[in-house]
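Q: Give me a backbone?
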Amino acid sequence: MRKIILAAAIATSALGLAACSETTETETEEAVDAMAADAEANADSAGDAIEGAATDTVEGVEAAAEGAADAAEKTADEIGDAAANVAAEADAAAE
């Protein structure tokens, strides 16, 4: 009788461990899948942020270049006007 009870207890324990390990395996797989999905989402988010920063940088450089070109054109116009004034004054003084 004792042997039968002992055998039943061992069998029950073995089945419990088998069921437990299957559940643990399933939960582990689900956790790994969730972590992989999170890592992929984070990588996508980081890629989007980098792309956005690069776009902002390019737009900033373009705006700065346009501003510099406008300033150079204005300066050239002012120098041309000043030179014309000096030439006009020289003509007036020569008369």
